[in-house]
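SAMPLE LOG
Freezer: B-3
Tube label: C17
Construct: single chain, 274 aa
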Amino acid sequence: MNKIALADQILKRIKAEKPSLRSQYENTKDQIGYLVIDNLLPDSVAMEIYQAFPAADLMILNKNLREDKYIAVQMDQYAPILEAVIFAFQDPRIVDLIKNICSIDTLYPDKNLYAGGLSLMQKGQFLNPHIDNSHEKDRKQWRVLNLLYYVSPGWEAKNGGNLEIWSNGFKEKQITIESLFNRLAIMTTHGASWHSVSPILTDSKRTCVSNYYFSDTALRPDDQFHVTSFRGRPEQKIRDLVLQADAVLRQGIRKIFPKGAVTSDHVYKDPKDS
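STRUCTURE (predicted):
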C-alpha cells in the first residue's frame, strides 16, 4: 500500500473511534494526556509493515545509561512501505483530525523526523524515564504530541517493552500502555510528561513506527525550552543521580550552543532536497 492508501485507512479508523478517543484524551490531559486506538490498520497490512522492518544490524544502535535501542530514520534506505506508513501519519487530514480530537490550536507534522522514524528493541533493551526535547530541530515550534504505532505480532504485557507514563512522578506507580500489535498510542509531550519503555523480557523484537507533531505554542503556559532529559527508574538510585547531572550538563551546553554543539544525525534527509 502507498502513503495515500495507508492514510485513507488510518483516517477511517480514527474517525470511527473519534468520540472514544476524545474522551480518553479529555480524561487524561490535565496530567499527561494520552489516547490509544487498536486495530489501526488491517492486520495483514500491519504484518507487512512488521516483516519489512530492517534487521538490527542495518539500524543505528543507541546504547548508554539513558537508553538501549536501535533506530532508523533515513527512510529511503528501507522497504517502501516503511516510508509510506511513517509519512501517512503526516497526511494533512490525519493531522487536522487529531488536532480536533485534542483541541490543539495549531498542529504540524515533522517532515524531518527529528527523533522519529523506526525503533527496534530486543531482549534486555530499554528506554529510561525521560521527557522529550521541547522543540523541533530549529527551535521554532513546540513538540506537543508523540505518535507511537506498534507492529510486533503476538506482543503481550509480560514481554516487557511497554510504554510507561509517569503521570504522578516516580513515587507512585506508573500507567502502563501495552505495546500491542497494530496499536497506535498518542501522548502529549511537555515539561512534565515523563515516560519510558520497560526492559524487554522476551527473545521477540519490539518494533515501533514513531512521529512527532509540533505546535506554535506549548501545551502548558509554564513550559520552557529543555533538552531530552532522563531519570533513573525508582529502583535505580545511583543511575538517577548520574542522569540528572547529565541533563543539567546538556541543558547548560544548549545555552551556549542553542542548536546543540554537534548536529543531530537523527534527522531524515529528503533525497529530493539534495
